[in-house]
Amino acid sequence: MGKSVDIVLKKTSEKEGIIYIRTIVDGIQRRKSINEKITFKDWEIYFNKKTKRFRTDKRFERHEIINEKIDSYLNKLPQFNNDLGNISDARKSFLKYWIDNITLEKNEGSRIKHLVIFRKFQKFLKSKERVDVAFSEIDQMFVRQLKSYFEKSKDPKTLSTNTVNHYLKVIKLVINKAKKDNYYHYPSDPFSSILFKSDKVTKPALKEEEIKKLIDCTIEDQSLSLVRDVFLFQLFANGARISDTLLLRVGNIIDLRINYIMYKTKTHTSVPVSRLLAQILCRIFSFGDIYSELRKSFNCDIPLTYLKQVYRHRGTISHMPFHLPTELKVNIIELENLITDLIKKEKAPPSKPLTGNIYDDVFIIHENSESSMEKMINPLINYKGYQIQNTNEELKKLIDIKSHSIAKIDEIFLKQFQDLVNQLPEDQFVFNALNPTLYSDVKWKKSNNLNEKQYKELKHQTIVYNRKLKTLQKINNIKTNLTSHVARHTFAGLLLDYKVNLYDISLSLGHTTLKTTENYLRNGFDSNRIDYLSDKMSERFSF
């Protein structure tokens, strides 16, 4: 590989020129100015072509400054494989490059984030009595001083370790972008001496009893009731961010799935509409309590054996029919009550033997309790959410009837829900917190960047929402500090309870990399799928 390095003068006028470094590598010639002008006369008298430096002479006072610049470039060349194209202008302003990129940033959230850190960086320079800094001045010592300033500065308050790391990583991102843009190249990473050690932060998440408290509470204030429903929607829609929740349109709900592009990551996500989500949305859209009505009207066929208990629940035990049907139809509520009664009876102390009287004990199963030895042989098991004896096949059959019936009710309910949704305007916001006119130009089926007004409106409504969450927390005596992001943390916690693997957690949270999920959870997991989780949560929580 042929290489040569020379110092040359490029003519700019009749009397003077600019000094350049010139390299020839494999026949490819490159030049870079050292930004020093000199007359042809001084060049001829004082430049030594053998040493490639200017002679020491009192008559030419600039020789020392020019030689230092030549030395600076020639010393850098080996680090850049003698490629002048990789050696940037030492005078290039870091602040100018950064602010130019901030101006071009399309994502309003990212633009504001960079502006906050940019202003903090300016305050650091001001503390050093500087107004600007060149790329060439940002070395390892500079970065260490910057880190120290971020850690100690109280403007307006001392930054946390994680915030300091975040600020430094953003600045490093700008430097890496300059390298990709071929704007400036560092011979070595100025951040190489910085260890980004984060403080472990406990992510607040609701406990199961707190979730049930929110579901069961009666709220007369309509605005607070809406806040409760928005929070529960976030939770059961795979921990949806509040920005995505508020930007959601009716048209995003298609074929019992919520399909949308996440505002933060610009990635597509799809969430199954579970019974829980459909119940929440029925309240939001004022569809009425369709699910409860279905539970009351849907009939289940149960064996004749349980006739007496059912009539006792109905309060019509004295009006039992003499000619008994082969099966009895009951609604799901009666069936649930029957199962609960039979389980209590199974655990009750021994009673009198069976008499054979059709209206007394004939149709009550397990009237005789088992002995202590039998209970040891037949311990209780968890059968589809119920604690029963393993040998109780009749009770298992009833529970199976209930499970099948609920699955059928859910199927009917979800179909009715989607049919009603299809009748609504598809561009209507699901949660009417944002001004539709302001967002009329947002193509909600695609990835979008919000303009400044739209972004500020979204942030304002998020702040209002978080304030109301504090009130909701207070009136429900919830200890966990409620914020919009707690719904996301809580969903992640539920995934951990179900022992879900890391890849599926990453998918459900909409993270762009597994590393993000690892940092988010800092834990280890195994199996199950995301759609399955929605069904399991519908079993675990109910309205």
What features would you describe in this structure?
This protein has a three-stranded antiparallel beta sheet. It has a three-stranded antiparallel beta sheet with strand order 6-7-8, with no helix packed on it. Residues 350-375 and 520-529 have low confidence and may be disordered. A hairpin with a 4-residue loop joins strand 1 (3-11) and strand 2 (16-25). The protein has 543 residues and is of the alpha+beta class. The radius of gyration is 36 Å and the shape is elongated. The chain folds into four domains: 3-86, no CATH class; 94-180; 208-285 and 431-540, hpI Integrase, Chain A (Orthogonal Bundle); 294-407, no CATH class. The chain contains 20 helices and twelve strands.
What can be said about this structure in brief?
This protein is α+β, with helices and mostly antiparallel strands and 543 residues long. The chain has 20 helices and 12 strands.
Q: In total, how many beta strands?
A: 12
> What would CATH call the architecture of the largest domain?
Orthogonal Bundle
How far the N terminus sits from the C terminus, by CA atoms, comes to 76 Å
- Broad structural category: alpha+beta
Shape: elongated
Number of domains in the coordinates?
A: 4
Which strand order do you get reading across the main beta sheet? 1-2-3
What's the CATH topology label of the largest domain? Answer: hpI Integrase, Chain A
Helix fraction by DSSP (H/I, runs of at least 4) = 40-55%
Rg over CA atoms, rounded to whole Å, is: 36 Å
Count of helical stretches: 20
Question: Tell me about the biggest sheet?
Answer: 3 strands, antiparallel
The overall pLDDT, averaged over residues, is: 82
Percent of sequence in beta strands: 5-15%
Low-confidence spans: pLDDT under 50, at least 5 residues? 350-375, 520-529
CATH class of the largest domain, anyone?
Mainly Alpha
